[in-house]
Amino acid sequence: MKRYMLPIVAAGMMFSTAAFAQYPEKDITVIVPYGAGGGSDIMVRTVAPYIEKYLDGDVSVVVENRTGASGIVGWQALHDAKPDGYTIGIITTPSIVTKPIEGKAKFTWQDFTLIANMVTDPAALNVKKGSDFKNVTDLVEYAKANPRVVTMATGNFGGDDHLAGLQLEALTGAEFTFVPFPGAAARNATMGGHVAVGSFNLGEAVNYQESVDILGIMADKRSDIDPNIPTLKEQGFDIIASSQRGFAGPKGMPEEAVKALSDALKQALADPEFQQDAKDQGVVLDFADQKAFTEGLAAFDKNMRAIWDKTPWLK
Amino acid sequence: MDLFTPLLNAIPAVMTFPNLLAMVGGVLAGIIVGSLPGLTATMSIAVLLPLTFAMDPLVALGMMAGIYNGAMYGGAIPAILLRIPGTPAAIVTTFDGYPLAQQGKAGYALQIALLSSAFGGMMSAVAMMILAPPLSLVTLAFGPPEVFWVGIFGMAAVSVFLGDDLPKGLLAALLGLFVGMIGLDPVMSTDRFTFGALELESGIDIVVLMVGLYAIPPCIDMAEETFRKAKTGQKLEFAPFMQTVREIPRFFKVWSWAYIYGIFVGLLPGASGSFVSFLAYERAKKMSKDPQSFGKGNPEGVAASEFGNNADNAAALIPTVTLGIPGSSVAAVIMGGLLVHGLQPGPDLFRNSADIIYGFMIQMFLTSLILIPLGGSFATNLFAQVLRIPRPLLIGLILCLSIVGAYCVQNSIFDVWLMFGFGLLGYVMSKTGLPLAPVALGVILGPLIESNLRLSLLLDVRNEHILFTRPICMVLIALLVLTTVFPPLWKRFSARRKKAQDAA
């Protein structure tokens, strides 16, 4: 009898660990597809301690920067990782949707397990303080009367700022000259008066209102971060455009891991201390669970494919 | 005076024990990191950033200030001892630093580099303390057309670095411009010379290029030497430190120009500090009564380069803290550090967190000051031992560091292979007498000039030829003509007159 005890006990132990194994049991790696010190990186590093706090289990959240090719290098690594819930990453719109459309990536956003959205930073139209353009109507009227004379600073062509400008053109028939600046330089060019208008996100503009006027944000409703800023919608231009940042994992991640991470994120975003941190950094928080996040991306994907078929933003 | 009250108020906050410890630690770490080819200040601050989350903001910033200033000097150490620049900014330091070392004056060259770095850093911090808000206006006033001309200014400086054989020098400069074109083009985002490799889309990082070109060929050379004959270690001849200090007045003129260039280029986002030392060196050589001695071990060359690359440090932080626009890649990471502590750059930073931001400026000054004792006594003596390391060991060491450095840029093994590729290229270049510096300058300036030219052309919607008609552009063009076209004409003219007089 005795000689059978050991295997039985061992089998029993194996069974019990499997049954009672609780996610997470080891450290979680977050792949950030952009450089250390950048917007996405800071956001992840700021939220990481809160995720650690709200997850059951004493594990660390480790940030790994895998940069290159506007995020594609990092996402490829995330795509290829083992879907065990211990390697997750940040995905951002519009790139995660548009890069596959452009044919630059070997994956689409459907090849990932979405966990939850965290930030939705609405696109915004900004002018130098004291500009003649007092609202979006002024801008559009002038641009219609003088085609291509209005210069609009954006980020890279095909990025969210540029796509927002294209949507405004498509809706109104106005024509702008888009000038793609690298990084935060679009704001610099707008503040210095080198361009007539700058298309950059609310989060990049909200803390600089001493030198820029924000004509409007491309969101459904005004933002909690500064409710004084009007939307384009209320000025008669129904455009919704934003840059989103959320968490995702490789395809086939276990349900319980998604749920645990999503719950921890939700609690983190509700934490007043974290909310203050986010506000100071100009981060516009917007939690959406897996279902809502997926629906949002699907709608955006459809919209972008329609635009790409008609007027591709990259040639 | 109103100006100094916030500075004075911030002093007690800086003079705490953890803070001083962080600064000393930062400077030491910076020197070490800077002296290891491939490891840069940007990288080490980025790596240490998460550790600073739990720290008091000033302690964290003190450490970053220390690393930043320390690394800019640290880069000079291998540049002088081995002709391997530790950071891209130290490329120019190799020109005269290494010949000095070969003449047995490595210790003296290190002392010059140290003093120049320290004074450059301190003066840059002073500019930041006194003039940060008004100087940030320069950043705003310089749009793409103006930055384009600044880039052309830098390109004009390339003449000094072409070496004696003009075609070879030009070939190297063109090679640099070509390498700078690899990746997505700055306006239309079309792939250029990437051959479908995703890793090449963001272009070739200057660190990967520099490590390959500069660190690998000496390893091969040393290996060849070792096989030919075993070499015993050289000794560093240290001049008494005070004797070098007494020489300071000699460098005032060179330093002043390096200062002007450093502050100015620091203020321009996108124009990296590495090219300050090129500009400063060119000016030093042109001003010198004995330009022939440059490149053969003129201490003024080391002084110009090292003062220049540190004078850019605090200046690059001016647009960072006032406008939220980082003036260099290091400044971008430091801005990340500010954001993490809830310090949003902009005018509010000066109003709401005056103690922290003025404290940080004081730290930028102090870390440059403590560079003198730390760099002088500890680090320089320690690193001087490098020359005593048996060659085979040194080769292995450099190779390891090069691989780690290239890998760390983007955590990518692709970059390691790329680095070895450049290593082979560098070896072939050194065997065929092609100079390396024009390649680096081409890579640094090519993309800057191209993107600003194309942005300017896009901006010129009313066909006003803004590249030539904007006031600052006109001033820059005038300066360019004055400094590049007139001196050779003048030389020819006076030579002819002398001839005529001799004939008469």
UniProtKB/TrEMBL annotation, chain A:
State the name under which the record lists this protein: 3-phosphoglycerate dehydrogenase
- Tell me which positions the record assigns to the signal sequence: 1-21
InterPro entries in alphabetical order:
BUG, Bug_dom1
Organism (species): Thalassospira profundimaris
Q: Which Gene3D superfamilies does the entry link to?
A: Bordetella uptake gene, domain 1 (3.40.190.150), Periplasmic binding protein-like II (3.40.190.10)
Record Pfam families: TctC (PF03401)
Query: Highest lineage ranks of the organism?
Result: Bacteria, Pseudomonadati, Pseudomonadota, Alphaproteobacteria, Rhodospirillales
Name the SUPFAM superfamilies on file. Periplasmic binding protein-like II
Entry keyword rRNA-binding: no
UniProt family annotation: Belongs to the UPF0065 (bug) family.
Q: Which UniProt keywords apply?
A: Signal
UniProtKB/TrEMBL annotation, chain B:
Which protein, by its recorded name, is this?
Tripartite tricarboxylate transporter permease
Q: Where is the signal peptide?
A: none
Pfam families found in the cross-reference section: TctA (PF01970)
**DUF112 domain location:** 20-439
Per its UniProt entry, which superkingdom is the organism in? Answer: Bacteria
Q: Which UniProt keywords apply?
A: Membrane, Transmembrane, Transmembrane helix
Q: Which organism is it from?
A: Thalassospira aquimaris
Q: Which InterPro entries does the record cross-reference, listed alphabetically? A: DUF112_TM
Transmembrane regions:
20-39, 46-68, 80-100, 112-135, 147-163, 170-188, 258-281, 356-379, 391-409, 469-490
